[in-house]
Amino acid sequence: MKNSCALFILAAAPLIAAGTGKMNDAERAYLLDQLEQTRKNVLATIQGLSDAQWRCQPAPTVWSVQECAEHIILSEEFLFSGAQVALKSPAVERPANSNLDFDRMLAGKIQDRGLKFTAPEPLVPSKRFATPADAAKEFALRRDKTIAYVKSTNDDLRVHVGDGPGGPMDSYQFLVLLAAHSARHTAQIREVESNAAYPKPAVRSQFLVVYSLAHGTPDQITPP
Amino acid sequence: MAKLQEHAAYLASQIQQGVIVCAGRTGDPVHPHGYAEIEVASEADAKTFIGNDPAVKAGVFECTLAPFSEVARAAR
């Protein structure tokens, strides 16, 4: 809690007027890049894990990959909702910290695994995704919804402020937090995977499957 | 046509599960072939992968299976 207060202390600085509340092109590009990159990394870290790897809990107080992934997924909806709730608050003058420099610092702090936070109760995992594929599907669905929103929205994300984990944040920063949060827990998954107790990957063999039509020609199975 | 859509959905699910490394098909309009490079624990699993394909089950496609070694991959 101490750390999270320190993390967001700057966000409570006095507000200043700073133009429009919409994302500019650079802000949209930065956020989309963060969302796309972290999407790719989350999926890569859980793809193809065995059941033993998925459920391996190296120590009683350490989350398994299954639990980390669930926490990421639950947080997607939670933080996106945070951005939307903030948007419903009355517009303010654009806060001084609503700029890319602060956003990058915020993202960096969130990803700092040296800083410890306690997950709020709704985000505590309960092993609800039985397989990595189930989790990957759900994560991709939720993240793609966020990406689609960021690509198209003209909402005044910069002039609506809500209560973030450690202080006030504008709606845009909730989405920066969403991406950075998934990166933070992707790093946590990698920590689990590098633990000595984590099952070693099974030896896998490659095969080439060649498909051909059993009967007829393509136009008999494909409409003209 | 429905079986082809199920086939496509099946391949997509297998990509997501890390079974398919890459897949594609030739552009020959008369005798097209599809290819899938897969990574599984055993030949039995490879046969299961084929056997679970809805289009194979329905008799639309027949498949051959061969051990494969990827020797090069372009960085993209």
Kindly estimate the percentage of residues of chain A that lie in beta strands according to DSSP.
5-15%
Count of domain modules of chain A: 1
**What is the number of independent domains of chain B?**
1
Taking the sheet with the most strands of chain A, its summary is: 2 strands, antiparallel
Oligomer: heterodimer
N-end to C-end Cα span of chain B = 33 Å
Mean pLDDT of chain A: 88
- The tally of helices of chain A reads 8
Describe this entry's structure for a reader.
The complex is a heterodimer of chains A (224) and B (76). In chain A, a hairpin with a 4-residue loop joins strand 1 (161-163) and strand 2 (168-170). Chain A has a single domain (2-221), classed as dinb family like domain (Four Helix Bundle (Hemerythrin (Met), subunit A)). Chain A has helices at 2-8, 25-46, 51-55, 65-87, 100-111, 132-152, 171-193, 218-221; strands spanning 161-163, 168-170, 205-213. Chain A is globular. The model of chain A is unreliable at 1-19 (pLDDT under 50). In chain A, helix 2 runs parallel beside helix 7 and helix 5 (100-111) packs parallel to helix 7 (171-193). Chain A is mostly helical. In chain B, strands 1-2 form a two-stranded antiparallel sheet. Chain B has one domain. Chain B is of the alpha+beta class. Helices cover 37% and strands 28% of the residues of chain B. In chain B, a hairpin with a 7-residue loop joins strand 1 and strand 2. The longest helix of chain B has 15 residues, at 2-16. The model of chain B has no long low-confidence stretch (mean pLDDT 90). Chain B contains 3 helices and 3 strands. Classes of the chains: A mainly alpha (224), B alpha+beta (76). The interface between A and B is medium-sized, with 28 and 41 residues.
Write the layout of secondary structure elements.
The complex is a heterodimer of chains A (224) and B (76).
Chain A: H1 2-8, H2 25-46, H3 51-55, H4 65-87, H5 100-111, H6 132-152, E1 161-163, E2 168-170, H7 171-193, E3 205-213, H8 218-221
Antiparallel strand pairs in A: 1-2
Helix pairs in contact in A: 2-6, 2-7, 4-6, 4-7, 5-7
Chain B: H1 2-16, E1 20-25, E2 33-40, H2 43-51, H3 54-57, E3 61-67
Antiparallel strand pairs in B: 1-2
